[in-house]
Amino acid sequence: MNHKISLIVPARNEEGNIAILVKRIDDTLKLSHITYEIILIDDHSQDQTVAVAKKLAKKYPLKIYSKKGNPGKAQSLIEGFEYAKYDLLCMIDADLQYPPESIPEMIKKIEKGSDIIVANRKQKKTSALRKFLSNGYLYFFGRVLHDFRCDVQSGMKVFKREIVQRITLDPTPWTFDLEFLLKARNAGYKISTVNIVFAERTSGQTKIKLFNAISQIGWTALRYKFIRPEIVPFHPLIEKQKGKGFHHRGQEFIHHSNLHFDETAFYRLTQKHKIIIVEIFLILAMALVLNMHGTIVVALAIVTTLYFMDLLFNLYLVYRSFATPSEIKISDEEISTISEDLWPTYTVFCPLYKEAHVVPQFVTAMSRLDYPKDKLQVM
Q: CB–CB of 184/250 below 8 Å?
């Protein structure tokens, strides 16, 4: 199967790495018969990164774009996704620390049913301090707080383009990865991994400000622990197959309705309800402090009144159920006033397998339906 993939490469001052990276990508993907495009997002490089990339673009399917938004890798990725033309995306850093040779294996895992493949940095050829901080972050913020079993800060991922079309991302310069994985998992997508060796940088300087990045990432991880996950509507293709619906906390809900979620019973309590409940409890607490005996008497009176009102209402419903027939009867006169041209066509699906004895019964039953036969599509 000939896969097609768009590779998003954020770059800033990577003149010594970009040519090697593009050559390795081309060699790897051509060998696996994978059609590709490389989208280089230049974050205002002050060296020859753009000049080198323009020479490479004459030989390879490479497109170069200048960063428009805020500085940082996260914004580069978001802009790159907008330029991509294929339904499969890969994000990979330009510094050669992530191996492009792993991309075919990651694509195979997508083919087997996963939606996001994370390059797990199992071996890290980095400084002891960075390795310690990275491992500590992955364990506490990734596994303990959010129950991820993957390298949540890996800068190399392969995933379906529809994911970034469905979720809304608003990361800081160093918090794209965790936010992306959290929102994708909430939207029902399956995350898998491929183990890689994280190489040491051989050219250029690292852009990460370690303690600044750790503080941003840590604060984001804590914040998302207490933020209620968003409701993510179905992708248009899924909606055509299943009807109106959405994902929430990784679960699928099909409601067949155009109502906004706030107008449905999905949330038992709105923000307004919660405020009213808190206000009632505060008033009750103040009343108990000022006059405990009187407050208890009034509260019991209110509860007793509500109980008897509910009892009377239920008796009324029982009476109505016996007094009024439950069937809806439509007279021949009412039917005759409606033109048959306005009657809808109904499609009746009848799946059969080695059930010849059922067919006569089915045909007889359909013929007895009191409905215009030209308005019945039997399949």
A: no
User: Strands of 35-42's sheet, edge to edge?
Assistant: 62-66, 35-42, 4-11, 88-91, 157-160, 116-124, 191-198
Amino acid present at 167: I
Question: Of 207, 242, 219, 250, which is closest to residue 72 (Cα–Cα)?
Answer: 207
Q: Which two tokens stand for residue 361?
A: 């019964």
**Alpha carbon distance 248, 146 (integer Å):** 16
* Torsion sign (Cα): 241, 242, 245, 248: negative
Question: Is there a contact between 81 and 164 (Cβ–Cβ < 8 Å)?
Answer: yes
Tokens of 336: 């005759």
- CB count within 10 Å of CB 191 equals 18
Report which residue type is found at 255: H
Burial (CB count within 10 angstroms: exposed 0-12, middle 13-18, buried 19+), residue 373? exposed
Per-run averaged pLDDT (10 residues), the chain, 379 residues: 90 93 96 96 93 96 92 91 96 94 96 95 66 65 81 92 93 85 95 92 65 70 84 88 87 83 76 90 92 92 95 93 81 83 84 87 88 83
Amino acid making up residue 325? P
Angle at 25 between CA 21 and CA 31, to 5 degrees: 150
Which CB contacts under 8 angstroms, 24+ apart, belong to 108-112? 109/192, 109/194, 110/158, 110/159, 110/160, 111/1, 111/3
The pTM is what?
Answer: 0.71
